[in-house]
Design a protein that fits this description.
The chain has 19 helices and 13 strands. It is an alpha/beta fold. It has a six-stranded mixed β-sheet with strand order 1-2-12-7-8-11. A five-stranded parallel β-sheet has the order 6-3-4-5-13, sandwiched between helices. A two-stranded antiparallel sheet has the order 9-10. Helix 4 (97-115) crosses helix 5 (128-137), helix 10 runs parallel beside helix 12 (302-309) and helix 15 crosses helix 16. The chain is globular. The two termini are 25 Å apart.
């Protein structure tokens, strides 16, 4: 169950000790597999047969993806420009996070049942993680979930998807602070090793290793959908990026032998773009944009990325993280910057106006609505010199359904269609706790964890 808890007691993030290699002949054999069948080939490279027998793991994967509303799980839309959109939002919370989290919930259930104990998961969310985590564990008797989101910083639909979960094992809090504020006090609770162990804490944020392991699969799937029949060429993948969990999985896929080129799209919170351009990593005020899931100033998976690209140089990564946590600013060593650039070929920041333009363009040309996060990816594609990117060999990861983002669509000057699913959601009853300004949020969280532990 090494993949279930996110952090070591020293505050570092869990990673695999060795990276499995996928051969060219594997890729050729897997070329025509469905998403679910491909997951059954890749996931066993990370989970030992003695942890979960192969047949049980295959059944668990089948079950996880059976809840998706599209038979292909991740269908492809080809835009008028020729670029490919991988629709990753056909799970229950209409977000790409369902793809990995639907499996993580089942894996957790498996390990917790084996050990005959209860686990409490704690999640902070600026958008989609909360509802995807809730959907992955709803109704499980041995897993409780505490989800916290910053007040006013998630869309109305995202909030409703969380607060309408009335299951007794789901506990949702609205926090009168920012996403980064929540991450800070949440990390302090996890670093308290004795408390975390006593209450059997786990996390399903992208700081959870199991999630990154499962996200590797969609990179292989993207490549196999668009590469030539001999799997001899490269495919460009554009990743809308906030906390960098999805990007971490892309780098891991490359290191496993997958010939993809990664490109990073961010919104006006451009810390990752600036770091890749100049080597300077510094935190400024978190800006509220129309792509809220990417409103992050501290990309909490960055240390995982550094670990991977430096060939697992834990000493260097630990020193850099300490410097960054103390000074909130950091200049990357030139070697590390060039190692990063060898994996991430380009990055670009999109303003709210860039995002609106892309939403309008796709609607006018394709009669198709994209979410504001996906629009940052399209902005990168459109702004790259055409020599860099061939449309039929470029895929943008569409990270969320537009159903969640009425505000963004309307601000782009378009009318928002009535979605049956949204109307149904609006009618649901809700329940939500409050962490108010001036309260000791860390103490509120600790009290709630203790209360869950004391349940019969």
């Amino acid at each position: 169950s090494s993949g279930i808890n996110a952090e070591y007691g020293d505050g570092g993030l869990v990673m695999p000790e060795q990276i499995p290699h996928i051969s060219h002949s594997d890729l050729v054999q897997w070329k025509h597999l469905s998403y679910t069948e491909l997951a059954k080939k890749i996931v066993p490279h990370f989970i030992d047969e003695c942890e979960i027998p192969a047949a049980d793991l295959a059944a668990l994967i089948d079950d996880s993806f059976s809840k998706f509303t599209h038979p292909e799980v991740l269908p492809v839309k080809v835009l008028d420009t020729g670029v490919r959109i991988l629709e990753m939002f056909h799970g229950r919370s209409w977000s790409f996070k369902d793809v990995a989290l639907s499996c993580v919930g089942r894996l957790l259930e498996h390990f917790v049942a084996q050990e005959n104990k209860r686990v409490t998961l704690v999640v902070s969310t600026t958008g989609d993680t909360g509802s995807a985590a809730i959907e992955s564990v709803r109704g499980l008797s041995s897993v409780h979930l505490i989800t916290m989101f910053p007040e006013g910083m998630v869309s109305g639909v995202q909030e409703k998807l969380m607060t309408s979960a009335l299951d007794p094992n789901v506990h949702v809090y609205r926090v009168q602070g920012t996403g980064d504020d929540i991450d800070k006090f949440m990390k302090r609770v996890f670093v308290d090793a004795e408390f975390a162990k006593t209450h059997n804490l786990g996390s399903v944020n992208s700081i959870n290793w199991a999630r990154i392991m499962l996200q590797v699969v969609h990179y292989f799937y993207s490549y196999l959908q668009f590469c030539d029949p001999e799997c001899g060429d490269q495919v460009d993948v554009i990743i809308p990026t906030g906390g960098c969990g999805n990007l971490t999985a892309g780098i891991l896929a490359r290191m496993m032998g997958l010939p993809v080129r990664l490109r990073c799209a961010v919104n006006a919170n451009d810390v990752v773009h600036r770091m890749l351009q100049s080597g300077e990593m510094s935190v400024s005020e978190c800006l509220l944009t129309i792509a809220p899931a990417m409103d992050i100033q501290v990309p909490y998976n960055m240390e995982r990325i550094w670990y991977l690209v430096t060939n697992m140089n834990t000493t260097l990564v630990s020193d850099l993280m300490k410097q960054f946590e103390q000074a909130h600013t950091l200049t990357l060593p030139p070697t590390l910057l060039s190692q990063l650039s060898s994996h991430i070929l380009s990055s670009l920041s999109a303003t709210d106006e860039d995002i609106r333009k892309c939403i309008r363009k796709v609607w006018q040309e394709d009669n198709y609505l994209i979410c504001p996060h996906t629009a940052t990816g399209l902005h990168l594609f459109l702004e790259q010199p055409s020599t860099n990117l061939h449309p039929s060999k470029t895929v943008i990861l569409a990270t969320a359904s537009v159903m969640k983002f009425e505000e963004a669509v309307v601000s782009a000057g378009l009318s928002f269609p009535e979605f049956r699913e949204v109307v149904e959601l609006e009618g649901r009853e809700t329940r939500c706790g409050l962490m108010a300004k001036g309260q000791d949020w860390e103490q509120v969280l600790r009290d709630k964890i203790c209360e869950i532990s004391n349940l019969a």
